[in-house]
Amino acid sequence: MPKLIIDEREITVPEGTKVIDAAERMGIMIPRFCYHPALGAVGACRVCAVNCLDGPIKGIQMSCMIDAQDGMKVSTTDAEAVDFRKHVIEWLMLHHPHDCPVCDEGGHCLLQDLTVSGGHGVRRFQGPKRTHTDQHLGPLVRHEMNRCIQCYRCVRYYQEFTGYEDLGVMQIGSRVYYGRYRPGTLESPFSGNLIDICPTGVYTDKPSRYRGRRWDFERRPAVCLHCALGCHVTVSARYREVVRQEARFSESINGHFICDRGRYGFPYVNLPQRPRSARVDGTETGWEAALKTAGERLESVAWKTGPQGIAVVGSARCGLETQGMLKRVADAKGWQGPVLDIDPAAANVRTAVSRLDSDLQVSLREIETADCIVVVSADPLNEAPMLAPALRQARRNGARVTVIDPRPASLPFQFDHFPVAPDDLAAAMAILIRKCAEKEPLSELGKTAVRSIEAVSDGADIPDADGLAALYDDLHNSRRPVIVCGTHTAPPEIPGMAADLALLLRIAGPRAGLFYVMPGPNSFGAALLSDPAPSFGDLVSAIEKGEIKALVVAESDLFGSGIDWDRLRNAMNKLELLVTLDYIDSPTTRAAHILIPTLTSYETPSLLINNEGRVQQSPAAFRGGDPIARTGGGDHPPRAFRRDIPGREMGAAWTALLTLGGRDPGSAPVNLTAWLGEAHPALTSLPEASDFPPDGVRLPLAENAVERFQTDRFSHGEKEEDALTLLVVDRTFGTEELSSLSSILKELTPSPFIHIHPEDAAELGLSEGDAVGIDSEAGTTVLPINLTPEMARGVLVIPRRRDLDDRLPQERRTVLSKTAIRKATEDA
Amino acid sequence: MLPTNVKQMLNQQIQAAEHPRELAIDIMMAVQDHYGYLSDEALEEAAAIVGVDPLKLEELATFYTFLYREPVGRYVIHICDSVICWMNGYESLRDHLCKKLGIQMGETTPDGLFTLLPVCCIGYCDRSPAMLINKKAYGPLTPAKIDEILETLRAEAAETTPS
Amino acid sequence: MAETTDTAYPQVLFANRKLDRIAAIDDYRKNGGYEAIETVLKTFSPKDVQKLIQDSNLLGRGGAAFPAGMKLQTVADDAPFPRYIVCNADEMEPGTFKDRVLLHADPHLLIEGMLIDAYSARAEKGIVFIRPEYENAARILEREVAIAEKAGFLGKNILGSDFNFSIDVHRSGGRYICGEVTAQLNALEGKRPNPRKPPPYPTEFGLWGKPTVTQNVETLCCMPPILRNGAQWFKDLALTETGAGTKLYGISGRVKKPGCFELPMGVRLSEIIDEHAGGMAEGSEFKACLPGGASTRYLTREHYDIPMDFESLKAVGMRLGTAAIMVFDQSDCMVGVTHNLMEFFARESCGWCTPCREGIPYIKDILWRIENGLGEERFVPMLERECRHLWNAYCAFAPGAAAPLEGLLNDFQDEVLDHIREKKCPFKASV
Ligand SMILES: Cc1cc2nc3c(=O)[nH]c(=O)nc-3n(C[C@H](O)[C@H](O)[C@H](O)COP(=O)(O)O)c2cc1C
Ligand code: SF4
Ligand code: SF4
Ligand code: SF4
Ligand code: FES
Ligand code: FES
Asked: CB distance A166–B53 less than 8 Å?
């Protein structure tokens, strides 16, 4: 631990700390442009100069380039260093436009700050300013190259950090240019970070142009809702709309960056179609009135059918408050449910949650330090976008990354892919488990493990089974292996097998970790707070049988449950009462007899448990209510002045549920924290809202020995000859419920198609681009095919676009007979 | 499109290389030799051969002096404007060339034969003032010598261009 | 020994230089060529070679004057393989053309030099990084490498030993910065040739992450004679106590006979100009010279007799650089000359760091204004500040650019002020 003196104060820092960081620890913020903790030091801008007065290195040095060493005496205020730093600013301003007032970065620009604070106000250079042409970079990022100060952050971020190659640096000397080979939409789904990372206004947020200045916004921290990772964002809101989001640093989860889905998924909050007034049978009523009517009607259903004639449903996007309240109300009232996760993956998530021991938990950031990673039945880029850069950092640190998944995996780095068909995934996992059990004299446990996989047929045609066996050796010899396991398309036995493998590895030596990919921002909470039965499918059957007459649905669109739409429509028609509480317009809100609008997580605080079992708090970013764009009817400024916030009558879903449960919200203070503790023991010691740590709290997860090495979980029977498995899978853009409502991301959402292995296509007499019809329960789906050699045989993959859901089969994994697949033109 | 034999040869070079990217400049030069300059098409073909995104080659092509991303004439004249040649009369020679060819620096003659570009010291200061035409050095130059060189090249071009 | 020069000084590097043609392998062998590598392979360990070169006091001839033997010794014994030898034949320093002359004179001398170097670093692959302007030399080298290979001096199991070595010629796309060792490594890897900041040093982590020794053409060519004749012999070749070996001095500008001369290290500037270069050109009077390329300070009349070796120049705050002497006379405007040099540096700056990318064009702009009658008194302190701060750039390029500007401000400030006061270039007026 070197001890050094900076500006006459002594500090001891860990080995390898840069002087610039050592100073920052002492509260001395040395200027910087090119240095960024995530991208490292490159010494390009030279604005971080300090003077080393004494010690192993002397003279003017770049504080980002030198490690703190014993005996160093550093001055950041030394006249020579200050003069040089000022001069760097003068150099950078030689060609920079002098128009901060109209620049979109103005007010939150590092260059502006340092120029003003350095006192550079007089232009001495008399030459002309250099100019560049800007490029169109797509709907998210605006490009203004004249503002560039050549810090190289953007290329380093784009190419080195995230591994995309369509943005780079061209030209030489004072004409260096950062951009694309040709103008066009940036290919990286992480491109929005360019906006955050560029220290000046070259890359700015395109969708929020002309919507306000940094200081006009209410800026608040929040947690992203668009997948289960729970990345940290900063929300900017104005006039009761969310205008912009930025990445917010999180030590344990996303580091400095977020994905574009997370950044631009927010417009659902502002949509004109968003339900903002309560409706009873299609007629607007007040919020309280609607709740009152709902309560009465529910009472009357209960009176007729008994409480079990009513069921409550939530979703993986409900906060813990709402999930907990659903459970509390259902328990109190004797209603059926709650079903907290209607996603077809719910059962897998449940397995995952039950198997994630505290010993095995790894955070997203910890993945970066793993040295051998096996991703099974998951598609990081599409299911949990920020997992991809985390894996890439591991790879950059030398890790081996292997994907075992039928889909055409694509990741921005070099990895191994075993394209194993869904039916064979268990056999693939069994190879790894068997090797592990055999290799180690694991005694009883090893034997149990071997027994557990006996039922797995080893006749499976796994491409490169030897390769898998060799992979085991790498896992075994690694220091920190991590098994990443998906839940979305995984056959039911896979999440458990992944846990078994991690467990065996851990016993065999290496510090193995386990990381599950889950579909929703609070899938974990849903699994924790609800029981396996009834499932949503059970509820639908009960409705069909007339056993359930009323449904209370909180923040959940039943048409995303994987159940065939016609069946679902018929079932819902049989309901006497559908009460829907939600903040988005969906087929479920449209079908509601009583619609209760609710606040989004931007407008009311919510607790969420991410895929790792980390409870996070997303505080309210602004007070909800009708946006001024709506109330003003286009006026500017709005003329109707009033004290209260229009449209603020609505509340959080959980408060509405509280009322439905028969409690007058005004009556007694509710202790949510205590209630959550009652709902699940793992939630007993959650901190109070005011002192929730920035990175949340990791739940203590009990080991669940009962579920290990189960032998009876292998569900699949005989493999059908002449059958293909159809997978309907997630895409980065266009699948996730809330972000698929984003107008901003529309342009990035590709039109749907079917991936098929060329050999399968040949057998079926299909060729690239053919329109192909698939007959399923949902009717016939016609889509063009895309021949994809890097996927499993015997599988069709359709990337799901939620806005076209009614045209796609609802089940995520269906077995189709080959005869169900034809060239569509033959129909005509 | 590159002729198949050229393409094949370049592909072979790449395949034989331990690190294909180390041949990026060679491949671009070879493709440029074929097309006369690195058009977008040429650059993209070169990128396909090297096995990288065109941007990766653009990053290099725009860095170097001798990769031309804009059309150039059959003979690219680089006149040295560095210090020794400069003090030995670079400016008047440049003016002479411009007048003779009827073009400004950076331009190409309408017949597509000559392009005039400046270049930094080409390492022929002992034979200054000097210039480089298609990587062949000439110097010490005088207006008369320049005329002679241009004549020779014109004749060579006339001879080798099928009419 | 020498057939082509009329001096009495020993010709070591130019021993086989012919007036009319390139020395062939037979010419080279006739004069003892490839004997050194034979001896080395038979009786020397890699360490012996390193030590001999270290003892010979051979300093790098590429400009930085780093001890060649010491560089070899920084390749750790347990450093990984493969290791690389890079011959720096980029030679883009303005005024410098010695490597060109050497390559055209005796290519096998370089090949043998690389062999010796490679043997001592236990490298199996050599690369000659050559500027595109030297296409002719590149072809010669490729041809002669093939000949050497046929003769058994390159390839596998050279001369029956277990030493393997091959040489590739890599043509640059043409940029001055590619001559800088670390930028050159990036260039060789097909990356943008921005320099890399050590540590790690190239001899630990160089080309493709493997130990790499980069040396200048002339440095490598000194090795066979050293191996043949010994360290002491090499040291004795120099005229000064501190120098070692002979040196190729390139001279151009206002002299009668510009050219490249092999002279003992430490020969006086006056002798080089007055005797070897045939004296100042007709009507020319020595005003100043750049002693070693564009990245050195002007040497004025006061130092006309200075011994031209690394130490002597260092003692007066100058650098020998590449020993490319560019001579100016009374008619040359030093503002104009410096402006021209800045044009060069501005054009060639790689664009990585702020001082160089922005500072040099800034300086160029100011000098242009002074030269064109738009000068102001306040420009002088502004230039001084630029100059000082250029030293804090990322690589040695910018301090190199600062050198002639420092010279201008120190030794020719009157000339600068004359421009400013007269609102024109006094030299142009006199023409
Ligand atoms: C901007 C710059 C350009 C350089 N160009 C060359 C060059 O063209 N040839 C060369 O041999 N050394 C050049 N050098 C010096 C090299 O960095 C390096 O010191 C040298 O090649 C090492 O070989 P040596 O030890 O044999 O001199 C250059 C250095 C800088 C900073
Ligand atoms: S565009 Fe922005 S991030 Fe990229 S180099 Fe320029 S200033 Fe830096
Ligand atoms: S990775 Fe997931 S949580 Fe993170 S920003 Fe993207 S969608 Fe949001
Ligand atoms: S000083 Fe900076 S800009 Fe100049 S060549 Fe070196 S790294 Fe490039
Ligand atoms: S921050 Fe240190 S050089 Fe840019
Ligand atoms: S200055 Fe022109 S060749 Fe050197």
From this structure: yes
